Structure formats: C-alpha cells, structure tokens
Amino acid sequence: MKKYDMLRRAASDLNCIDFFLDNAVNDEVYMDLAAYHLQQSIEKIIKYLLSINGVEFEWTHNINILLNQLDEINYPYPDWVFTYAPLLTEYESKSRYDDDIIGTKRVIETLSKQAKDWHDEIQKQQQKQQQKDSKNPEYHCGHNPQ
C-alpha cells in the first residue's frame, strides 16, 4: 500500500464511524464496528506518519508499538492517542470477536472527533508539502540543486 493511500484509507475509516454511530440504536454490532474503524483509522494515520519519515513500520495492530516507533524518531503526536492506545488496541480485536460491547458511544464519538482533527491537520501539512515540492520541479526530476 502506498503511503498516501494509508492516509486516504484512514479518512474512509473515519467516515465509516459516523455511519455506524448514526445507526447504532441499541445495536452492539454497529457500535463494535465503529470501535473497530476508530482503531483502524488511528493505526493507519500512525503508519502513514512513519512511512513519510522513512520508517518501516511494524505490521501490528498494537497502537503502543506504533507509538514507540514515532517516539524513536521524536515525532510528536496528540496526548490523547497515548492515553487511549490500550483501549484503541483492544478495539481492533475485541470489537470483532467478543460478544460484549467494549466501547461506549460517547467515548467513540469523542475519540472519533479527535482523530478527524488529527487527520485533517496531517492532511493540511501534506498538501503544503506537495505545493512546496511542486514549486521546485528540478527536485522531482531527480536533480538536487546545490
């Protein structure tokens, strides 16, 4: 998967959350799916950040492991991601296999909003970088002006 696809796919996961929350009236399956897509969006955002910084990310769903990789390159991330990393990691597996709902609508809505804000911030940074790169066509042709 290309690194920019990772960010686009994270946006798709975030959009799925809204659908499932809007339709999750007394339906544990929809809540579980919302929780799963929340975890997936965060995982993909982190993997995108690692990949654009030249880091081969671990093929894991464990948010703490991925955050450790960001820490190794001193890449900043929101405090809430660290705080909720264990819960988010549980969302990946338990929301698909356990019968008990593990996420409350309020928690998922709050974290989803924060994830969307983080995603949008990263996307704006990406667009600025692409504009900057496009103004220097020599760089894209494999020439590094010195």
What this model shows, in words?
The chain is mainly alpha-helical and 146 residues long. It has one domain (3-127): Four Helix Bundle (Hemerythrin (Met), subunit A) (Up-down Bundle), CATH 1.20.120.330. It contains six helices and no strands. α1 runs antiparallel to α2 (28-52) and α1 runs antiparallel to α5. The protein is globular, with a radius of gyration of 17 Å.
Amino-to-carboxy terminus distance: 33 Å
Q: For the record, what is the CATH homologous superfamily label? A: Nucleotidyltransferases  domain 2
As for the CATH topology, it is Four Helix Bundle (Hemerythrin (Met), subunit A)
Low-confidence stretches: none
Q: Domain count, please report it.
A: 1
Question: Into which percentage range does the β-strand content fall?
Answer: under 5%
- Helix percent band: over 70%
Please tally the helical runs, counting DSSP H or I stretches of 4 or more residues: 6
> Judging by the overall fold, what is the CATH architecture?
Up-down Bundle
The ordered H/E elements are: HHHHHH
Largest sheet: none
